[in-house]
Design brief:
The protein has helices spanning about 5-20, 25-35, 50-55, 55-60, 65-70, 90-105, 125-135, 185-200, 205-215, 215-220; strands at about 40, 80-85, 115-120, 135-145, 155-160, 170-175. By secondary structure, it is of the alpha/beta class. β2, α6 and β3 (about 115-120) form a beta-alpha-beta unit. Mean pLDDT is about 90; it is low at about 220-223.
Length: about 220
């Protein structure tokens, strides 16, 4: 193999490994948000090594964090937004705040719960958080599994009626949020908002929502 492609491969591999092991710094997100209240929580995975070896622990909330969520709001919100490190804190540091701010601009009329920042988190952790906040829908912005050409890709997962036991087929995903090489922050926010509007109308997300929208093309266009 020629030297240049070999070095490029080794660099990309190193960047992917660094992204997986990068430490999530919630202040990087909150400082960029410059205003909205935020709550920091942790999954049941106590450290990165455990998180990588035990995905099940990353899907459950640490018990001592539940009271903070229960006290988070007096009025029942419509939607919760969770910013989770996932498998690339690098992606979260780069793209979570601008995506979140763009999304909030598009949620006029929605009551948004305090932002939740989750450490050592898998997508399904949003189900327990959403249930604790008693919201209709939860959006999880999470670092996606790094590829050799994309160590900083952010994903967004939307789940209607979040609760423990939700399946991946009951979510909608907007992936590869990483301008300029992937989806722009504003474009991602447009798509997430479109999914939320359709979910509230149909009262579901995931495969069933996709099927409903395909069956009603006019409604999908309106959303």
């Amino acid at each position: 193999m020629p030297t240049r492609p070999l070095l490029a491969f080794e660099l990309a591999h190193a960047q992917a490994r660094d992204a997986v092991h990068a430490v999530f710094d919630p202040a990087t997100v909150t400082d960029a948000l410059n205003g909205p209240a935020a709550i920091t929580v942790h999954s049941r995975a106590p450290d990165r090594a455990t998180y990588l070896q035990r995905p099940d622990l990353g899907r459950r909330l640490r018990e001592e964090d539940l009271p903070a969520l229960s006290r988070a709001t007096m009025d029942r919100p419509d939607v919760a937004i969770v910013v989770a490190d996932g498998l690339s804190a690098t992606a979260v540091h780069s793209h979570a705040a601008p995506t979140l701010l763009a999304l909030c601009e598009r949620l006029s009329g929605w009551r948004v719960a305090p932002i939740v920042l989750a450490r050592q988190a898998r997508v399904a952790l949003g189900d327990e958080i959403g249930a604790a906040l008693d919201v209709d829908a939860v959006v999880v912005l999470i670092g996606e599994r790094p590829g050799l050409s994309a160590p900083d890709s952010l994903g967004a997962y939307v789940t209607w009626a979040p609760r423990l036991g939700r399946r991946d087929s009951e979510r909608n995903c907007v992936s590869n949020i990483r301008p300029p090489h992937g989806l722009a922050h504003a474009e991602a926010a447009d798509e997430i908002a479109r999914i939320l509007i359709a979910a509230r109308r149909m009262r579901l997300t995931g495969v069933a929502l996709n099927a409903s929208l395909l069956a009603q093309p006019d409604a999908a266009a309106d959303g």
